[in-house]
Amino acid sequence: MNQQNGNEPPRLYHTMRCRDAEAMITWLKDVLGFTERVIYRRDGKVIHGELMFGSSILMLGQDRDNEYTKLVGDLGGRRTDAVYLAVDDPDALHDKVKASGARIEMELRNTEYGSRDFAARDPEGGLWSFGTYWPKVAEEPLPG
User: Fold this and answer.
1) Start-end of H helices in 5-122
2) Where are the beta strands (DSSP E) in the chain?
3) pLDDT tens, position by position, 31-85
């Protein structure tokens, strides 16, 4: 397996299955500032969408009854995944997320490792964390 690093584009993508993919796309674009790369629709439903944030791509689609969705799990069950998004101005984003009606799970705080963070739920209950901590493959990790 090739494990290059440095200036190579990211290879890791978070994927989401949504009860209402259109509403999620709107929230991600209007509140968080994602932009649309491509949205594939069939019969009025989002089959596969790709939204961009900086050099990152988030993939998502409408929850449907297929083999992949069975692997992902029941949206009504307990989820153990979360998304972390590195941002430039968490204070401004916090205000925008809060104004959208999203539930704030962790208020803004300064961490011991120098980041300013908060966490909130997306319209379908997914947990997102936002902060100024932005690890990059080409940089040394923070000391442990």
Assistant:
1) 21-27, 67-72, 90-99
2) 15-18, 35-42, 45-53, 56-62, 82-86, 104-110, 116-121, 127-131
3) 999 999 999 999 999 999 999 998 899 999 998 887 766 666 665 666 667 899 9
